[in-house]
Amino acid sequence: MNMDTQPTSTDLVTDEKLWEVFRGSGVDHDSAPHFRGRLQHRLLINRCEACATWHHPPKPVCPACLSDRVSPEPVTGSGTIFMAIFLYQGPPSEGVDYSTPYPVITVELDEQPGLRFSSTVIGSSNDEIRIGRRVRLDWIERGGVPLPVFRVDPAEAA
Fold first, then answer.
1. In this model, does residue 5 exceed pLDDT 80?
2. How many other CB atoms are found less than 10 A from the CB of residue 120?
3. In the predicted model, is pLDDT for residue 10 greater than 70?
4. For residue 1, is pLDDT > 60?
5. What are the structural domain ranges in the chain?
6. With contact defined as beta carbons under 8 Å apart, do 134 and 110 qualify?
7. CA–CA separation, 13 and 71 (whole Å)
8. Which pLDDT tens digit goes with each residue over 81-124?
9. Are 39 and 146 in contact (CB under 8 A)?
10. CA 123, chain centre distance (Å)
């Protein structure tokens, strides 16, 4: 639940409704709070309350100190492209056009070295998507579901 005193409307979304909205996305007990965050366009990543280490994907135990005191916290979504691939084919998916290679990137987030999140890039040509480029978080709706994506930082797009 939200740490504020009043629950938000997304805190009140049942697990069943969450599984329905994000069908096929791997919602489980550990990831449900993260998907609830997406409904508010908030990218949440688990952070250990004992040692302050961030870790993704969500797991109930910190991989650094083995504490079970982990909770999802928002991240800025700013980072650097760590890896980029371009898909020439794949399963049909709303909003994905393979006639131009579809970019999939892994971003090392600014919150911690080695903390990475994968998605796609919007608003840039494939020639602009390079390892080491700065990106920032953005959101799109795909099939009525909020999806975290990245944009090349405007200062980098020149």
1. no
2. 18
3. no
4. no
5. 15-74, 79-152
6. no
7. 18
8. 999 999 999 988 888 889 999 999 999 999 999 999 999 999 99
9. yes
10. 17
